[in-house]
Amino acid sequence: MAQDKTIACQDCGAEFTFTAEEQEYYASRGFTNEPKRCPDCRRTRKAQRNDGGARSGGFGGGGGGGGYRSGGGGGGYSSGPRQMYPATCAQCGRETEVPFQPRGDRPVYCRDCFSTRAPDPGRGGGRRF
How confident is the model over 48-61, as a mean pLDDT? Predict the structure, then answer.
């Protein structure tokens, strides 16, 4: 059975407790790394990430999810806020932002329209996270 651990925050240096319950939660989600930041620094970091991409209709924004996560969205590598590009949804015509430079040779969809589309069978069957 897991026991509480005391860990020093890599950002502020404060000590915080990684409780047995939190360890069980991490394990149930398949996380293998312990947190490196205290709850306050995690909250601050999450707020900074959301501020950089919380534009209406685009990817990378909108809250949701709480609790603990290991690393950033791309495997723990962070280079600051994600670059977003303006686009017009090919399905509904709404202005949106996407995390890639649209080339014009393929349709671009807003978050809502993209989530309702069926997976393209020629591309491996669907979204992978």
Answer: 57
Task: Strands of 1-93 (E only): list them.
Answer: 5-8, 15-18, 85-88
Instruction: Mention every residue, 6+ apart, whose C-beta is less than 8 A from residue 5.
Output: 17, 18, 23, 34
Burial 32-53 (b: 16+ CB within 10 A, else e): eeebebbeebbeeeeeebeeeb
> With contact defined as beta carbons under 8 Å apart, do 14 and 35 qualify?
no
Residue 12 backbone dihedrals phi, psi, to 5 degrees: -105, -15
Q: What are phi and psi of 101, to 5 degrees?
A: -80, 110
On whether the pTM is more than 0.85, the answer is no
